[in-house]
# Entry
Amino acid sequence: MGAQLRVYKRRIQAVTATKKITKAMEMIAASRIVKAQRKVAASQPYATELTRAVTAVATGSNAKHPLTTEVEAPTRAAVLLVTSDRGLAGGYSSNAIKAAERLRERLASEGKEVDTYIVGRKGVAYYGFRERKVEDSWTGFTDNPAYSDAKSIAAPLIEAIQKETAEGGVDELHIVFTEFVSMMTQNAIDDRMLPLSLDEVAKESTRKGEILPLFDFEPSAEDVLDALLPRYVESRIYNALLQAAASEHAARRRAMKSATDNAGDLIKSLSRLANAARQAEITQEISEIVGGASALADATAGSDK
# Structure
């Protein structure tokens, strides 16, 4: 019994230490969610106004540009997948990867070749393990992205959309990331960045009661779109990175809270088993003492006779 009690005590100590770690990680993730939410909110007005400006330029001119012009028969698409650098976040990265796989299958069914770009070590590891080609990848900043990170990601994507498909270019740009809805809800979604769907933007503006601004283009609409193209792609990627970071922190907080609660339940269960083992040990010792005393009494009574 003594050996079994020691085993239970060692397990309780190990689980208690794990509980302290998961509780600390839960608190850290919770504190980072608020900062990430503020960054998302701060980036939204710029992205919204930039989209409206691009839409106004495109609708107010006859300029043909990769930013707004649909290709009649697109044959190649680029997909940017945003995952995390670290684990312990539940199904956060796996959900984004599954969404990217569904998008890839849909594009392939439409007869399009897919070039994959990945953010985060989890996505890189997934594709590397399966020996699948990745055009480019970026790691080391998923939990706290900066605008400079979005610029470095956007550069090869902009270069690809500006090239002809025969020269290695693409006709469409898609991004897969995890949208932050609330502390409890984060959805892995795919969104087409380019070409920009002017009809959808116009409908959204009409729904909100907004009026698209009127601009004079200097020197020309094409030059304005050339200047806006990198800004638009960078802002969209930056907003997606910020939403993904907030989602990652929320998923990690939820996963660590679940781990902490499970550790607490396991400690209670082990404590009950340890108490039962201790009681059994005490009962056995009492039985041995009583049995020994009874045997001694019987032996003494026999010698008196």
Q: What stands out?
A: Residues 221-304 form the longest helix (84 residues). The chain has a mean pLDDT of 85. The chain is about 65% helix and 10% strand. The helical segments are 2-59, 92-109, 121-129, 147-162, 198-207, 221-304.
